[in-house]
Amino acid sequence: MINKLHQARAFIGNTPLIQLENKRIEMFAKLEYHNLMNSIKVRPAYHILKTAIQKGEITSKTTVIESSSGNFGIALAALCKQLQIKFIPVIDANINSAYEDILYALSYRVEKVTERDGTGGYLLNRLQRVEELLQKTPHSYWPNQYENPLNYESHYYGLGSEIAHHFETLDYAFIGVSTGGTIAGISQRLKEKFPHIKIVAVDLVGSVIFGGPPKMRHIPGIGASMVPKQIERALIDDVVMVEELDAIRGCHRLFEEHGVFAGGSSGSCYHAIHCYFSKMELAQRPKVVFLCPDGGTAYVKTVYNDEWVAHLRQKEHVTN
Questions:
Q1: Where do the domains of the chain lie, and which CATH numbers do they carry?
Q2: Which InterPro entries does the record associate with it (predicted)?
């Protein structure tokens, strides 16, 4: 089985790191949508599956079951397809329609949660459905991206090392937070090489990760309705909370100003960077890196759709 998985390895990692023009800071974007299946999530998906196969936890009879807002599920679906084993993603009504279509095409079966939990999100109900499926599915395996230390480890040795090797000095890293694995792994690796670097976590208003009140959110892939276990490993110096409409503006600015067509988490970080440095007195231009975890294609009916954005703006106006 492991040989089938290794075929995918050539398409994972070593993604482009480009400099974006900015007068006040040296800004760099790591374009993770150049990975296999167009997202950062294939890194932990590959590492978790490979390790589970090596340990004998996954065999040809295994059914992999996981909760996902999109990208991690798609990465698992593609890799499980190569392994010729069953995969059941548990998704929710907030998923991008493009992601949903891909999951239906690649998965053995798709489970969709349509009822919001007590926080206004879907995550807790998705996890409950995963538990139910695990109990009634023989030979099942749960990657558990929310607590599995292999998630953190994949970013420490992979993405974190790639960024560390690229720079001689680095002052800031802005990282969107969801399961916590990405920021945990990258922050640990970057702090080793750059002890004085500031790790800035970026989250959406309505997410509870950093103690804010829960609120209905519409952009998947960033934020969570529970505090992920892996966030305890992260070495975070500062947190920037971004409103969803500002995240959308960030996506549009990133594309219009630099030609980077990316998803909601990318726009959130881009907006956060501009807010963070807008009123700061800078003696010199700091080096700043941020991640573009996925591309904009899956967001053409939402973030890049004027009608959808106008509807969201109206909802926000009524709520406020």
A1: 1-34+154-307 (3.40.50.1100), 42-141 (3.40.50.1100)
A2: Cys_Synth/Cystath_Beta-Synth, SbnA, TrpB-like_PALP, TrpB-like_PALP_sf
